Amino acid sequence: MAWYLLRRLNLFIATSLVMLAVLFYATNLFPTDQVVALSGVINPNSADKLHIVHSYHLDSNIFSQFYAYITHRLSGDFGLSITSQQPVSQELINVLPASFELSIIAGLLASIIGVPIGVLASFNQHKMTQNIIISATLSGYSVPVFWLGLMLAHWFGVQRDWLPISGQINLLYDIKPITGFLIIDSFLASDKYGMAAFYDTLQHIVLPAITLCVLPLTVVIRMTRSAMIEVMSQTYIRAAEARGLHTGQIVLRHALPNALIPILKQLGVMLGSFASYAILVEVSFAWPGVGYWLVSGIYQRDYTVIQGGVCTVALLIIFLNILIDVLHTASNPITKKEFYGTN
After folding, report:
1. Which residues neighbour 114 within 8 Å (Cβ) at sequence distance 6 or greater?
2. What is this structure's pTM?
3. Which residue from 183, 210, 232, 298 has the fewest beta carbons nearer than 10 Å?
4. What would be one Pfam family of this protein (predicted)?
């Protein structure tokens, strides 16, 4: 197992280096002075410019420049934002919790709703019901996320005025950051505002979370259904039925844990799509996360923000993808058997 983890670590390092090389090449193509693109310092004086040139080895060969570039970026030094002249790393720290909060809630909704529906669909062999499920999941997978977000905002926010359509919380509330997750922080601040701030944060996250969870929800339903149909036909399931075990006990203790293993692997494959969907959702609902911040930086030609956002999102996707692959290998008995049998 140690060799397997070492190979995954090498894959993470190699993939990250390739991503950083592409980002380094793109930085040289920005239509601005390289000193400004790397540091974010507007109109640097002679001393500042000399320091930046020396720090990023701009007076050396391309390999030395790349080494200095990855050293700065991997240490968390993304320079200053060209727009706000604040450290990009600090702005990232401020916007990352909002993206994590939205993604976690959307993922939980997709799992809590999708797994039971997929299990029930696997037991229903009626042809019309199966066709309805397949059509519904295919439609949910194919619908443009920005259109879905705009329609939900129009129906439930504009026409009926049931839910807010932008932001993370009403500006009337001043919530002191404790954990960085606004739902938790507003709940902890309930003594000051009652439960009004907490309910307001829940209302603000409903539409973005529903919009974002549609893609993983359709995938979870289809994968759970297919996996359950395959697992329920296995010999050990028929043996459990022959022993007289209750259907619910068979499903919960034997079939469902094995059916969830391929779903875990599929989630790793769709992380890139999920991240792009999250960016569109944050822009549609003005959600103050990394996606909204990154798109704003693109519109404002804030080159250091673009580098910091792309680098952070890409590293997170690479890391989570490899982590899910490791968890899949560790939780899959067949994979572990093959792994230990070949090493």
Report:
1. 216, 217, 218, 219, 220, 221, 224
2. 0.84
3. 298
4. BPD_transp_1
Q: What domains appear along the chain, each with residue ranges and CATH number?
A: 91-303 (1.10.3720.10)
Give dist(CA 305, CA 92) in Å, integer. Answer: 9
Q: Which two tokens stand for residue 244?
A: 């007289």
CA 237 – CA 1 distance, rounded (Å): 30
Q: Per residue in 12-66, pLDDT tens?
A: 888 889 999 999 998 888 888 888 888 888 888 888 888 888 888 888 888 998 9
Tokens of 16: 């990250």
φ/ψ (deg, to 5) at 80: -100, 145
Closest alpha carbon to 292 in 309, 315, 272, 273: 309
Give the residue from 200, 228, 223, 215 showing the smallest Cα distance to 107. 215
Contact status, residue 27 vs residue 38, Cβ threshold 8 Å: yes
Q: Cα separation of 142 and 113, whole Å?
A: 19
